[in-house]
Write a structure and sequence with these properties.
Length: 353
């Protein structure tokens, strides 16, 4: 571990002590467990996910998908249509959704939360290419993305070993105690929003994650991904959310992840499933649904427009993606007002429809 990165505190000693677990997460903003999840089940899930990813062309043909050897020429990320095309094929896997409901995960979340648990409907996996560091998930608080209520928890787990150079998560202990959403600004990377690191104090904590490890943290805990610095290995992880039944959930967490980019429906996700017990499981639970607050994403987009006018390369790339996805949206039209040259993209996209 480098001087800038400290080792996560392991809480396996308190696994059967719910009061101590809740004390730790309220004090430090996270709890971390070694081998919380069954490595054999995760290995099977890894093979299923990476086999679909290989079929999508992201892994080198003929290699063992378990090795996740990446075709670097296929680099893409959330926001790119080619990313969503492959991502949603992975998203349809029943085993992927079921992993968020494994008993060892739900039992631990119940201990940490202290009330009956609702796993968020919108399951998430993160798939990150090597040598694509400008798209590394920036420093942020999760609340700006999933919203609902502050007492929502993320459970992050690598699907396979994840040493530091592959790009696991790092947290800033105690950062949740601000008890508010800090100012976020435009950034590339998952979510498109970041915190100014100059305003943050403290040491970052992470580890060389092994298969089965799990990091659980609060909605306001400041965290980030480390860059994938490997030569050719894809990083795959689970990034699921949990809350108490009865607490508010934001409406956009009840649809498939990245749904806005392809209109994926739950019927599409469920089509080839072998069992029915997890289909629409949330509809029978008494949990109030609240509207999504678009102020965070709108501010990020407004900042991207301003930065693009000043020639910022990351903002230009972001606006290009917005136009390529759908030139008819209000955001795309605003982008083309700032960048008239992007009308070439609009014409090409319209012609392909």
């Amino acid at each position: 571990m480098t001087a800038q990165l400290q080792e996560l505190r392991v809480s396996n000693d308190a696994m059967n002590n719910p009061l101590e677990l809740r004390r730790r997460i309220q004090d430090e903003g996270y709890v971390f467990f070694k081998k919380l999840q069954d490595p054999d089940k995760l290995s099977d899930l890894r093979r299923q996910m990476l086999s679909v990813i290989q079929e999508g062309g992201w892994l080198v043909a003929g290699t063992d998908p378990m090795d996740a050897i990446t075709d670097i020429s296929r680099q893409c990320t959330e926001g790119d249509s080619m990313y969503t095309d492959v991502y949603h094929e992975v998203y349809k896997l029943e085993a992927f959704h079921r992993s968020a409901h494994w008993p060892e995960v739900l039992d631990m979340m119940a201990k940490v939360i202290g009330r009956p648990v609702l796993p968020h409907t919108q399951k998430i996996t993160r798939i990150w290419f090597p040598k694509y560091t400008e798209h590394t998930t920036p420093v942020h608080q999760d609340f700006v993305h999933f919203q609902g209520n502050f007492d929502t928890y993320t459970c992050w787990a690598p699907v396979g070993g994840c040493p530091i150079e592959l790009g696991g998560l790092a947290v800033l202990p105690g950062s949740h105690k601000v008890n508010k959403v800090l100012d976020h600004h435009f950034s590339l990377g998952a979510g498109g929003l970041r915190l100014d690191t100059d305003a943050l104090n403290g040491q970052w904590y992470t580890t060389n994650y092994e298969i089965g490890d799990a990091l659980i943290f609060l909605a306001l805990t400041v965290h980030k991904a480390l860059p994938n610095l490997t030569e050719d290995r894809l990083r795959v992880s689970l990034d699921n959310r949990y809350q108490a039944i009865g607490d508010p959930i934001a409406e956009h967490m009840l649809v498939p992840h990245l749904n806005a980019l392809s209109e994926l429906r739950w019927d599409d996700v469920y089509r080839d499933w072998q069992s029915d017990d997890l289909k629409y499981y949330w509809k029978n639970l008494d949990t109030p649904v609240v509207p999504r607050d678009f102020s965070y994403s709108n501010q990020g987009f407004s900042e991207a427009l301003t930065l693009a006018q000043n020639g910022d390369e990351q903002a230009l790339l972001h606006l290009t993606r917005v136009v390529k996805r759908d030139p008819e949206t209000d955001m795309a039209k605003a982008a083309m007002e700032v960048l008239p040259s992007l009308k070439i993209v609009e014409a090409g996209a319209s012609a392909s429809k």
